[in-house]
Design goal:
Strand content of chain B: under 5%
Number of helices of chain A: 4
Strand order of the largest sheet of chain B: 1-2
Strand content of chain A: 15-25%
Largest sheet of chain A: 4 strands, antiparallel
Helix content of chain B: 25-40%
Structural class of chain A: alpha+beta
Number of domains of chain A: 1
Number of strands of chain A: 4
Shape of chain B: flat
Largest sheet of chain B: 2 strands, antiparallel
Oligomer: heterodimer
């Protein structure tokens, strides 16, 4: 009887401590990724529409250029995102993100891991968020991918006209790629 | 038999202990009192030999971790890498999606490619990887760039093609802008130095002061001047110098708060009071890097380069700039050639560059028309209205294409300049003659621009 009580108490204790873990893994991590995405997406949309689209394409006062330092130009929206992502990497902030595309101009931004390839192909058709887990360099990650929608003419004009772009018929509202966020689970 | 073996063992034991103690003592003396040279594991590269016995400047702890070593590398090199917009910065490889790549070649650490004290595997620029190392990450390059399929991976870093860190010369707009430029540009002139102009502006003057009398009279009390003849020679040179015109007096260099009575003989420590930028860049370069660690200055005896060792020369401000005449013309050629004796240096006086330098200094050509050693290796860099002479030669020394924008293209077209810099034989001859080398970069960029025109105007 005594032993039975102890077993029951241990089982209750384990279930009580285990449930927040399940919650953290299945819900909180996803929520955290969604929240990070909403901030990145908002900053990106505002920079693209209110800075690049307005100053380069509408008012024509300054251009955006890959070699922005050299040309005294605006940073391209994709570079803005990448530079911020690199800064987050340097700060070891507990997550990483990158902007990828099946039709990347810079080939280093093509999907590379199995999950990235699966996610980018799924986003292309459905424009729905994609969630999964993967192991990279011996570490387990929660990986979320969000469609990167063409929000302004500046996006599609640049990609459709670029010599290295493998796709030249983007339209406003198309998913041009995906933003991939990774949160370590170990 | 057994007894004699036992006796031998007893005899060997104290000998072993004594030998260990002797070796230990010798090593300890070398480490704590001596020059630490017994602990050098191999010859050091041309970039670090100057400080090779100051072990802790890189190995901050006795058994430094890779991260600690990385911090040491970045302490001296991070600023320059940031300036040139490094193509492979550490932060690019911190994303876990690169884990597979960094497993093969950990580009987050400098020591992956630059291992010190390994002369047997050290190549140009201190690289200790095989020349085809790019293949680890760029194996599929021919798929993205079919025009690269005939190139071997060991040729990626050919001069005028790709550099691992500084690729500013390959920026497409830059190449497109300067294609088809003539060999010699219409205007061939280096930027004029602005230090004197800025001094006049700062002191709200339109012209220099008339030459004043020196504020030091020869007297027996002055210990740093040995005789009247030396004193007269020094003041005579000073009267003709820019220091006299700016009323930079004897007391400015030979006295300070601690030594108010002209006791300062070695004025090195006072130069940077006024010449801050020059000093700052000098101690970053190979000539002055020992000073940045508080060590004695480098000398002709320290140098591993082909220098004249017949005359012992210690390198500091005054070894190149005569302290009283402050002659920048001598400092730009003669001072260099007093030490440097390699083929490139020895051939300089046969070059067109030297011919122009002579004409400029005799007044036959306008200032900035000649090319001295300093014009290329301690270049004048223009930023806004200000032109500074950069005393850190590392900024544009290796790979030599770093020189292209800052130096060569003040006078020459891009293609001509790049072809010349890529021609090792011509560099050794100090550009006596001309290069017939057609650099493949230009064939590729022309094809690309043609394709671009077709895409945009189908």
């Amino acid at each position: 009887m005594k032993i039975k009580n102890i077993v029951c108490a241990v089982a209750v204790a384990v279930s009580m401590t285990a449930s927040p873990l399940v919650f953290a893994k299945d819900v909180s991590v996803k929520k955290m990724a969604d929240a990070i995405f909403s901030v990145i997406e908002a900053d990106r949309a505002i920079y693209t529409k209110n800075i690049v689209q307005r100053l380069q394409n509408e008012d024509e006062v300054i251009t955006a250029d890959e070699h922005w330092k050299e040309e005294s130009a605006l940073i391209l929206p994709a570079q803005m995102l990448r530079l911020a992502a690199e800064r987050v990497n340097e700060k070891n902030a507990g997550f990483n993100y990158s902007l990828l595309s099946l039709w990347a101009i810079n080939k280093q931004n093509k999907p590379r891991t199995d999950l990235e390839i699966k996610a980018l192909n799924a986003l292309k058709d459905k424009k729905e968020n994609f969630y999964g887990e993967e192991t990279l360099g011996g570490k387990k990650y929660f990986t979320a991918a969000y469609p990167d929608i063409a929000v302004s003419k500046a996006c599609i004009d640049c990609h459709n006209d670029h010599i290295d772009s493998p796709k030249k018929d983007f339209k406003l509202g198309d998913a041009m790629g995906g933003l991939v966020i990774r949160i370590p689970l170990d | 038999m057994n007894k004699s073996f036992k006796n031998l063992k007893i005899g060997v034991l104290p000998f072993g202990i004594i030998l260990t103690l002797v070796i230990g003592t010798v090593l300890a003396i070398n480490l704590f009192v001596g020059d630490r040279s017994y602990f050098l594991t191999g010859e050091t590269t041309h970039g670090h030999y100057q400080i090779q016995l100051e072990c802790q400047s890189c190995h901050t702890e006795p058994f430094s971790t890779q991260e600690q070593m990385q911090t040491s590398c970045e302490k001296c090199h991070a600023e320059e890498l940031d300036k040139i917009n490094d193509s492979h910065p550490e932060k690019k490889f911190l994303d876990p999606r690169n884990a597979e790549l960094t497993d093969k070649l950990d580009a987050r650490l400098c020591t992956t490619c630059h291992k010190e004290h390994k002369p047997e595997i050290t190549r140009k620029y201190g690289v200790t990887l095989a020349p085809d190392f790019c293949i680890h990450c760029h194996r599929d390059i021919a798929e993205d760039k079919p025009n690269h399929q005939d190139f071997e991976f060991k040729t990626c870093a050919t001069s005028g093609c790709h550099n691992f860190h500084d690729n500013t010369m390959l920026y497409e707009k830059f190449l497109a802008k300067h294609l088809d430029e003539p060999k010699n540009l219409k205007s061939q002139q280096l930027p004029s130095r602005t230090g004197v102009k800025r001094w006049l502006k700062k002191h709200k003057l339109k012209e220099f002061y008339s030459v004043p009398e020196p504020d030091l009279n020869f007297s027996d009390e002055v210990t740093s001047i040995q005789n009247k003849e030396a004193f007269d020679k020094a003041t005579q040179l000073w009267r003709l110098s820019v220091h006299a015109k700016t009323n930079t007096q004897c007391s400015n260099c030979h006295t300070d708060e601690a030594y108010p009575s002209f006791q300062i003989d070695n004025i090195e420590s006072t130069c940077h009071d006024c010449h801050k930028k020059q000093h700052e860049t000098f101690i970053q370069g190979k000539h002055g890097m020992r000073l940045s660690l508080g060590l004695s200055p480098i000398s002709t005896q320290h140098s591993i380069k082909q220098v004249n060792r017949d005359e012992f020369k210690v390198l500091g401000c005054v070894s190149c700039h005569s302290p009283h005449s402050v002659n920048v013309v001598d400092a730009a050629v003669d001072s260099c050639l007093e030490c440097h004796q390699d083929k490139h240096s020895r051939n300089y006086k046969q070059s067109k560059h030297f011919e122009l330098w002579i004409k400029e200094n005799s007044g036959d050509l306008k200032p900035g028309s000649g090319v001295s050693c300093a014009s290329c290796h301690l270049p004048r860099l223009k930023k806004g209205k200000r032109v500074d002479v950069i005393h850190n030669q590392n900024w544009n020394l290796q790979p030599n294409t770093k020189m292209l924008r800052k130096v060569c293209m003040n006078c020459h077209g891009l293609e001509y300049s790049l072809s010349a810099l890529s021609d090792d034989f011509l560099v050794e001859k100090n550009f006596v003659g001309s290069s017939n080398y057609d650099h493949p970069t230009f064939k590729l960029i022309r094809e690309r621009l043609k394709k671009k025109t077709k895409v945009n105007n189908p």
